[in-house]
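Homework help thread (please don't just give me the answer)

Our assignment gives two proteins as sequence + structure token strings and asks us to describe the second one. The first is just a warm-up. Here they are:
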Amino acid sequence: MNDGLSVTGMGIFEAYEKLYLELAPKIAQLEKLKEEIRGEVLLIGESASHGKVKATYKKGYSRVTWDSKGLDGYAVAHPEVRALREEKEYGPSVSVSVAKT
């Protein structure tokens, strides 16, 4: 962490921390209830809702992965496989969290 980082409005960090500390116990209760809901929905195997709360069930699926290093090596001898390669770039992001004490 760079403590010398210049951020306009450092008061927002203090405000976030204060509110987080006030809400942390309620957030923990919500997370526990959310896990119970997930468990129930997994048992019934379909989406469910009540009021404004919705639990969407998504069935499991298989996912195929490839060894990128191995295929890059293969592409040296077989450059035609490079036409099947796709690369995406994602911009920077910031994750906000509060350390547990």
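The one we have to describe:
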Amino acid sequence: MLYKRHELKRKINHDKFVKDCVITMVADTFQKFDLILKWTRKLAASRELVVDKAQVTNALENAIRNKYVAAYEVSLRSPMSAAKLSSHTTLRDLARPARYSTVRLQELWFYATAKGKRSAKGIPNLSGGKL
């Protein structure tokens, strides 16, 4: 598809916005894809933008490929002994690095890497102060 210069700039800015949303959504806590999608759409709507599932999936894959985000498996069948599990056990304690694949998109959890945390924009910044 050929783009005119202003259309290309708008597409690049839109794609960057979606990527920034995805990274920000996982900068502070582990998230499932459905919640990343929901909040990315909400942030986009605050800017009068429309974002679809494919765009968020592509942004997530790009962020993983560029080491801003990592994929994890979270299992209650943790290798931790039952004696070590407590009310203070967090997702971080139960998460294990996993290989990303689109087939596993719904079962994986996502979290920002150190690089991703440094580049996260923050929800107020992304929403233009509207959320």
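TA reply:
I won't write it for you, but here's a hint about the kind of observation we're looking for: The domain at 5-119 is CATH 1.10.10.10 (Arc Repressor Mutant, subunit A).
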